[in-house]
Every structure is written in C-alpha cells, then in structure tokens.
Amino acid sequence: MTDTSSAVADKIRCDACPVMCYIKPGAAGACDRYANHNGELVRVDPHIILERTVSHGGRLVPFQAGGDWDGKIVHGPSTFVTAIGAGTTYPDYKPAPFIVSSEVDGVDMVTVVTEGIFSYCGVKVKIDTDRYLGPETATVRAHGEAVGHVTTSEYGSQMLSLGGVHHLTGGSKKEGRVTCDTLLDLSNGKPVELTIDGGSTVVVQAGRAPVVNGLTEERMRVGCGSATIGMFAKQWQGKIDEVVVVDDHITGVLSEHQAGKLLDIADTGIKMKGRRSTPGRYFQVAEPGTGWGGTNISDPLAILGPFDPKTARPGLTMLMVSTTGEHAAYYQLDDGLRPVETEMPDALKQSVARIQENCEPALCTVLFMAGAGGSLRAGVTENPVRLTRSVKDALTRVTSGGAPVYVWPGGGITYMVDVTQMPANAFGYVPTPALVAPIEFTMRLSDYAALGGHMESVRPLSSLKDNAELLPWPRQGPIPGQGG
Ligand code: SF4
Question: What b/e string do you get for 101-123 counting C-beta neighbours within 10 Å, with b at 16 or more?
C-alpha cells in the first residue's frame, strides 16, 4: 500500500510519477506497476527482501564471545531490503518509500530504498565477438528506431552504447518508446534484436552468447593475431615453417614476429598485404567483416602477396588460422611457390584445438548506467549534496537490487550495475518515458542523521516482512553494510 494517491469517483489517481494516472478499480496504471485494488492503490509486484543464510555463505559467529561455541549458531540470517517492488515517491522531496533501520554487530544501520525513475539512463553492452558488427559511431536500431550507437572495439569485444536521454526524450515519441522498451528488456535479461546501420543484425541477451546475422557466436578470441603468435610460437616450433594468425586488427606472422625471431624461426619469403606496424604485426590486411578473424575474407590466401623466390622454397609449409581457431587451413608451396591447401597434420590440428580451448565462451554483458545524482537524492535527505559527498567518502554504500554498483568518480552519483547480478525483473518503466530501477543507500544511522536524512520516516525491518517476498541472497560476499 502507498499513500501516493487520491480518489476521483471510483478511480484512484496515482502520483508515484509525473504521469499521474487515474486508475479504475481492478485495473493497473500505464506502467503496470501500480493498480487499483478494491479502492486501494497498490504496488503490483512484491517488495523483494534478500536473505542470506549459511548455505548462501553467511557468517558463523559465536553466540557469546569467549564462550564455548559448537559452531552451529548462525548470526542472522542476514537480511537486505532491496528497492525492487518498493515503489516510487513523487515529487522528490517526499521521503523514499522505505527507510529501514537494522542493527549489525551492534551498529545501527539504515537502508534507504526507492525505485528511481531515470530519464538519464542507458545500457552499455559488451558483445564478445570478432565479427564485424558495424562502423564506430554507427546508429543502432531496434524496430527501425535509433536507440544508440556503436562505440569502441575492445579486446575481443564490440561495445554498444544504448539509450540515454537523447534517445529517450530528444527524438520522436516512437523513438523514445522503443528506446525505453529496448532498455527495459535488456536490463531484465530478455533478448533484443538490434540492427546496425552499415553492419550486422545481432541478438543481444545479458549473460548469453550473441547471435550475429543468425549465427550463434561460440568463442571469444584468444587474443589478437600478434598475441596468438606470442602465446603459441613455441608449440609451433619444429612443426611448421610459417604461421599466419588472421585478424582484422593485428594479423600476426610467425617468422617475422619477435617470438619467431627468439626461437630462430627462419625467414619464409612471405609477403603480406596490409600495413606493417612492427615486425610480424600487420594492420588492415582486409576489410572488416564476418569471415576469418573478423575480416571480410573467406579465402585467407587473399591477404598474401607472392612469396619472395629469393627466400621461399617449394615444400615450405604454412598454417593460416583465425584468432578463435574457428577457421584454419594448412598449405604447402608448390614448385611455382604457390600455396596449395593440403590435409593438416595431426600435430597442427592439435595446436588449432589448443587455440579454441583457450578461447572463453562468447557472451553479451549488459551494464545498466544511470545518474542518481539529481532530484532522487531529495527522497533520501533534505540536503541532497550531502548524500553525494557521503557516497564519495564511502560512508554510504550504493547498491541496485542488492547488487554492487560502480560509482563513477567526479560529480553526481552516476553508477553502473551488471544486470545479471540483480534479481529477475528488477526493472520497470514509466511512459514519460523513463526506466525505473531499484537503488538502495546503506549507511550508519548516525551518518544518516548527520546528512539531514528523513529520520521521522525510519522504520524497523520487522514492519516490512508481511508484505515482502524473501529471496535468497544471490551472491557470495557481504551484504552491504554487514562487513564480511
Ligand atoms: S505510470 Fe505508473 S507510477 Fe506513473 S502515475 Fe501511472 S501508475 Fe503511477
């Protein structure tokens, strides 16, 4: 139940967000989070409290310090009040929906929870793949609407930046709605199909393998082409004359690479296309694509020029392999010094298998990012900047659905959270449009009073449990504010 309503005829007006829905009996508001239940405005989803018992890594402590202890007495179970299902207060000066006190190891603590409404939010997506998804800064679309853009390539991954206030509020109404839906689905762990201008279609789901142009990605590269040479050069020594690790970014060539030089691997007269960076390391051997090593080629010989007849010899052997080991071919030079593909010897098959074995599974990672440094703070304290300072001073711990967050240095409380660390369906939305995300601030009660907290609204944990759903603490490690 919440006090954020007023009745008109038999409808209730919800004032938990700026939309201010009138809700008929038995119906839900525009966000499906609040409903009119027999004339009472209720939050539809249960309020989630996480409980950690010994089986979830809870601590065992002696019942009486110094006394005989058989190790069976449990301190706890430890309980943490999340903001999931807690509801929202609006406007912001109203105290957060739940400000809950608890005692931990003799210290009075308080956790302030609210389902924050974030117009300034988005997701950062990391897609483990070598395949070319699209040019940097290209627009990313869902259902044809622009919802974000391609950002940098990282080591074996392509990053996307989706959402943000520009797409939520700065474009057409449809763009804002589709952006909101996309962020909501990704944050709640659902699959979303994205198309990239001038690039690929990719299905992204947090914690799952990406599906690029209909193909499920299996492996994340073991390293760039040069790194792969560095890792496996010794295993190739004596078994092969030349190895080329094909990579859209840095293609490696064993005989020229420092690793090959240190192992006294002889020159082969190989001639690479592309731009030579340093010995045995080549950039831009082909265009980016979804072929070998994230290039657009299906025939690796396309990146070679003719072998130098002064150095090369007939019978010379060469392995060409991609950075994941997904593609590999074995060649011998014929009398005209042309590479001819032949059956790969077992020893080299094993080295390709070793590359594959060293690749980690390809996954999509979704980090929700939002700015809680604005008006939301007023629900925590009458003097909002003190909350920001308290977070920066590490006196206040910020979590999202109980999950640890990374708070960006600098101004505000801009945080990121791995959505797979949060309980299921922790996110909601309001049609302004904006995302609704749980956020909790945990601190000592004395610190809360000092920063101008809403002390009159502090309530004990026991006042919540009847209306709440208890879920097991999903992680190892401490509950916020509870030390080890
Ligand atoms: S959108 Fe949801 S939170 Fe906002 S007023 Fe309507 S029911 Fe209440």
Answer: bbebeeeebbbbbbbbbbbbbbb
Residue 29 CA, ligand 1 centroid: distance in Å: 5
Q: How far is the CA of 83 from the centre of ligand 1 (A)?
A: 17
Ligand 1 centroid from CA 429, angstroms: 9
Distance CA 253, CA 421 (A): 41
Full pLDDT tens readout for the chain, 484 residues: 445 556 566 899 999 998 999 999 999 999 999 999 999 999 999 999 998 765 554 444 444 444 444 443 344 457 889 999 999 988 888 899 999 998 877 889 999 999 999 999 999 999 999 899 999 999 999 999 999 999 999 989 999 999 999 999 999 999 999 999 999 999 999 999 999 999 999 999 999 999 999 999 988 988 999 999 999 999 999 999 999 999 999 999 999 999 999 999 999 999 999 999 999 999 999 999 989 999 999 999 999 999 999 999 999 999 999 999 999 999 999 999 999 999 999 999 999 999 999 999 999 999 999 998 778 899 999 999 999 999 999 999 999 999 999 999 998 999 999 999 999 999 999 999 999 999 999 999 999 999 999 999 999 888 886 668 888 887 766 677 665 4
Q: How is residue 381 annotated by DSSP?
A: B
8-state DSSP, 241 = S
Strands (E), 53-106: 78-81, 98-104
Ligand 1 contacts CB of residue 16 (under 6 A)? yes
Atom of ligand 1 nearest to the CA of 88: 3
In angstroms, the CA 160 to CA 236 distance is: 37
Quote the pTM value.
Answer: 0.86
| Ligand 1 within 6 A of CB of 142 | no
**Which among 4, 5, 15, 31 is the best mutation to test ligand 1's pocket, defined by most ligand atoms within 8 Å of the CB?**
31
| Angle, CA 251 vertex, CA 321 and CA 329 arms, to 5° | 15
Whether 442 contacts 99, CB under 8 Å: no
Sign of CA pseudo-dihedral 80, 83, 84, 89: positive
Q: Whose CA is nearest to atom 4 of ligand 1?
A: 17
Kindly state if the Cβ of 34 falls inside 6 Å of ligand 1. Answer: yes
Tokens of 364: 């999509």
User: Rounded CA gap, 476 and 455, in Å?
Assistant: 32
Those residues with Cβ within 8 angstroms of residue 221's Cβ, 6 or more apart along the chain or in another chain: 130, 155, 156, 228, 247, 293, 323, 324, 359
Cα separation, 187 vs 325, whole angstroms: 32
Instruction: Name the residue at shortest CA distance from atom 5 of ligand 1.
Output: 20
- Structure tokens belonging to residue 309: 């007849």
